Amino acid sequence: MGVLLAFVVTLLAGLSTVIGGWLGTQPRVLRRDILAAALAFAAGIMITISVVEIAPSALSSLDEIVGRTAAMLWVGGALLLGAALVVLIDKAIPHHVNPAEIGGGDQLDRIQAGQVDARLLRSGIFLTAVVALHNLPEGLATFISTLKEPAGGITLAIAIAIHNVPEGLAVAAPIYAATRSKAQALLWATVSGLAEPVGGVLGYLILAAVLPEEWLSLTLALVAGMMIAVSFMELLPAARRYETHYTQTLAGLFLGAVVMVLSLLLLTL
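Predicted structure:
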């Protein structure tokens, strides 16, 4: 019964990305200002959670094992490796044949006319992969917490679900804007969220408590590097292409950071 409850709680926390995915499929996201703000909002979320939560957590865990200096080197290396992996993935994903480097209103006109914007689609796929990786350790944490203490695990799941909503929006908005397909956008948002129960179940099956702590810590730092790289390589440049005024990107970036900080504070309650 305890295992079933832990799985259900973790699954529901992960599937909250579907709520964000639905928000990302609303027609208003096709407005240039809304799309720019949404992309910058996603960047704010990714950068903030990487810098404020994930990297410091990895550093703290390794500090107790190998010392401060070595921990900084390991975490720094993992961050750089994560960023390098994003660059390699970027090179590996096929670009649209002779993609038009169109910006501003012309580019949005193509989207509204039903033409696929390959760059936005790539951004959405990048986000799906990175959010899924990020959700794996969250799923493990939720699963184990619920298994050991159901009340505490459910509280943790609620907080995680709250900040999974904007992550689902971050995944769905660029995919919907690129393809005009609500089904595709919701599918990718769902896939990113399903990583949480997958992480929980896999962690349980391979006895996560026995895994070396530094392995999990370095994995977290690796994901943080990927999230930061995606934000600066994909999300912010895309936001700048669609903005009608620079304040839209700045406001989205700031709001994303604020929302993520508030959701992280809930985890400490």
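Summary: Residues 32-66 form the longest helix (35 residues).
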